[in-house]
Amino acid sequence: MTRLLARDVTLGYEGRTVARDLSVEIPDDSFTVIVGPNACGKSTLLAALARVLAPQAGAVVLDGAEIASYRSKEVARRLGLLPQTATAPGGITVGDLVARGRYPHQQLLKQWSDDDEVAVAEAMALTNVSDLAPRLVDELSGGQRQRVWLAMALAQETPILLLDEPTTYLDISHQVDVLELCARLHAHHGRTLVAVLHDLNQAARYASHLVALRRGGVVAATGPPGEVLTEELVTDVYGLACRVLPDPETGTPMVVPRRPDWMAGRAVEGAGDGRSVAGG
Ligand SMILES: Nc1ncnc2c1ncn2[C@@H]1O[C@H](COP(=O)(O)OP(=O)(O)O)[C@@H](O)[C@H]1O
Ligand SMILES: [Mg+2]
């Protein structure tokens, strides 16, 4: 039984249908990455999987029951969502925001436990924000804020974690940090991860399972990155002519956009011997 899936869902907002009859399974214990062009419905799908958005038709199923049938705290103990754009309450400190991730675990009378304390400290250490604890969230850089939100999602300690573009705003080394952290959570802590990523090469490196959406919220392909990420797929889904080569570091597919004709024959400054790259 798959823990989390969307079955024949129609998703949208007032007056706008984003996806129709969409079915997506999140394989248990996978690191699933969702890719697709801007506005194709990735965030909408993630919101539906997290019960933030109710499907207009069809169902999202969590642990064998319709997700709509759970109490909200129960959903929040099973899955966490890092939204693409999250706004913190004004004047809140980093420590307090991360602590809010513990809400689903709190009981009525026993408000704050040692477990909560440990979970918050661990989440902040993993995302490298412990030093920021007393700072106001409003005053952080985009990259720092992104890691604080990730810490809050981690503090929730859910077996399933949904991350919408967790690497936005981050410089390349912090992007790698976050993706490595996700990979560790997946490999060593048995978390099921679902992330929306824009960088296809990062997606191919880290995903165990890739879901490629095309415009209109239609699944173009699913499966291991090595099977899904082909030149045909990239052309089909993004309208981009490219080559797909093995990543020299990992052997996973690496997408290299083709050079348009008008650029051919131009000398490339600093390309070793400075020769024209025309004709390879
Ligand atoms: N709250 C909303 N109300 C109305 N339309 C929305 C809302 N959120 C997203 N949309 C629209 O739904 C479509 C899919 O958006 P989204 O799921 O955010 O795309 P993606 O994450 O793939 O970039 C877009 O056309 C977007 O403009
Ligand atoms: Mg989005």
From TrEMBL:
<dbReference type="InterPro" id="IPR051535">
    <property type="entry name" value="Siderophore_ABC-ATPase"/>
</dbReference>
<keyword id="KW-0067">ATP-binding</keyword>
<keyword id="KW-0472">Membrane</keyword>
<protein>
    <submittedName>
        <fullName>Iron complex transport system ATP-binding protein</fullName>
    </submittedName>
</protein>
<dbReference type="Pfam" id="PF00005">
    <property type="entry name" value="ABC_tran"/>
</dbReference>
<keyword id="KW-1003">Cell membrane</keyword>
<dbReference type="InterPro" id="IPR003439">
    <property type="entry name" value="ABC_transporter-like_ATP-bd"/>
</dbReference>
<keyword id="KW-0408">Iron</keyword>
<dbReference type="GO" id="GO:0016887">
    <property type="term" value="F:ATP hydrolysis activity"/>
</dbReference>
<feature type="domain" description="ABC transporter">
    <location>
        <begin position="4"/>
        <end position="240"/>
    </location>
</feature>
<dbReference type="InterPro" id="IPR017871">
    <property type="entry name" value="ABC_transporter-like_CS"/>
</dbReference>
<keyword id="KW-0410">Iron transport</keyword>
<dbReference type="GO" id="GO:0005886">
    <property type="term" value="C:plasma membrane"/>
</dbReference>
<dbReference type="GO" id="GO:0006826">
    <property type="term" value="P:iron ion transport"/>
</dbReference>
<dbReference type="InterPro" id="IPR003593">
    <property type="entry name" value="AAA+_ATPase"/>
</dbReference>
<keyword id="KW-0547">Nucleotide-binding</keyword>
<dbReference type="InterPro" id="IPR027417">
    <property type="entry name" value="P-loop_NTPase"/>
</dbReference>
<keyword id="KW-0406">Ion transport</keyword>
<keyword id="KW-0813">Transport</keyword>
<dbReference type="GO" id="GO:0005524">
    <property type="term" value="F:ATP binding"/>
</dbReference>
